[in-house]
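Question (not urgent): is this output format expected?
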Amino acid sequence: MEQHSIYEICGILASISMVLGYLPQAIQTMRTRNTEGIALPTFLMMTIGGFCFMLQGLLHKPEIIWSLFITNFITTICSSIVFGIKMYNDYFKKKE
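Got this back:
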């Protein structure tokens, strides 16, 4: 098998694994709005890291690394949503 093909297959498998790893937590958090067991700094760092990896995939020369970009676009959105719900629950709900 050609090295380029192995590289692409690894990227696709990593992308699928990352998305499938994030979606259950994001869906559960969006449904229940329960964030008690979630660490705020973790999801802040995951959001920042995902955004940076997304940019890396987009800005890669000579061509965009689509698997890196799409995966991290999805995980950045999921992390941002969970982070937002966690912020709301921890800081804004306490004031009510």
